[in-house]
Amino acid sequence: MMHKRLEKRKKAGVNLAVFASGNGSNFSAIVRASRQGRIKVSSLILVCDNPEGFVLERARKAGVRVILASRRDFSSRRDFEAAIIQRLRYYKINLIALAGFMRMLSPGFVKKYRHRIINIHPSLLPAFKGADAIKDALVHKASFTGVTVHFVDEEMDHGPVIMQKRIMIGSGEGLASLEKRIHRLEHRMYPQVIRSLCGRKVKPGKGRC
Ligand code: GRF
């Protein structure tokens, strides 16, 4: 039988923080899924480290609360992360979804939220880690690539895989086309994973919300 507190949380929904630095199309897909009731989110915040990120505009339009923490405003990574953690605690965040967050989280941060931080990456990890994963698949003339959602650990683009889906690369397919297809897949997959994590009966602190 599920623990009473877990049952209550599941009913109430997850307190979700999306971390993003740039465009924010995955952020928007998560907001859409939550507004349409496909994922049960009782509170949603955006954590952004880039004052120029288009994702800020998306959040403003969607009426989502923003925590803007620019690394330049802090003298150390420790202080930068401490400020974020303070806000996460304030909002009782129990799941963090990295969606194009262009910054490595420290081992200390990862430890505090172990199994509660997930990341989406546009390749079939461990293939094509890093910021140019889609382009790299084309450069290496791969016949397929895909999307991975995984728990975050101390290494970049690394940690237990939650879901992977493959996409075939058409012969002569260009970057714009492949990017478009990968992003479309990401926008379906990320809300699906969030929903499955929040509905799972697992032990406290082990990958549930
Ligand atoms: C996505 O391709 C995601 O897989 C990667 O960064 C990109 C973010 O895109 N981690 P967007 O900002 O959500 O549009």
Number of helices: 7
Low-confidence stretches: 200-205
Bin the helical content: 25-40%
Question: Can you tell me the CATH architecture?
Answer: 3-Layer(aba) Sandwich
| Oligomeric state | single chain
How many strand elements? 7
Strand order of the largest sheet: 3-2-1-4-5-6-7
CATH top level label:
Alpha Beta
Task: Provide the CATH topology.
Answer: Rossmann fold
Q: Report the sheet with the most strands, covering strand number, pairing sense and barrel closure.
A: 7 strands, mixed
Give every kind of bound small molecule, once each. Answer: 5-O-phosphono-beta-D-ribofuranosylamine
Structural class: alpha/beta
What spatial form do the alpha-carbon principal axes imply? globular
For the record, what is the CATH homologous superfamily label? Formyl transferase, N-terminal domain
Give an account of the 3D structure.
With 209 residues, the chain is α/β, with parallel strands linked by helices. It has a single domain, classed as Formyl transferase, N-terminal domain (Rossmann fold). It contains 7 helices and 7 strands; from the N terminus they run αβαβαβαβαβαββα. The chain has helices at residues 4-12, 25-35, 54-62, 77-90, 107-112, 133-139, 175-198, and strands at 14-20, 41-48, 65-68, 95-98, 117-121, 144-151, 161-168. The chain has a 7-stranded mixed β-sheet with strand order 3-2-1-4-5-6-7, with helices on both faces. β4 (95-98), α5 (107-112) and β5 form a beta-alpha-beta unit. It is globular. The two termini are 17 Å apart. Mean pLDDT is 91; it is low at 200-205. The protein binds 5-O-phosphono-beta-D-ribofuranosylamine. 5-O-phosphono-beta-D-ribofuranosylamine is lined by residues 20, 22-26, 99-100, 120-122, 186.
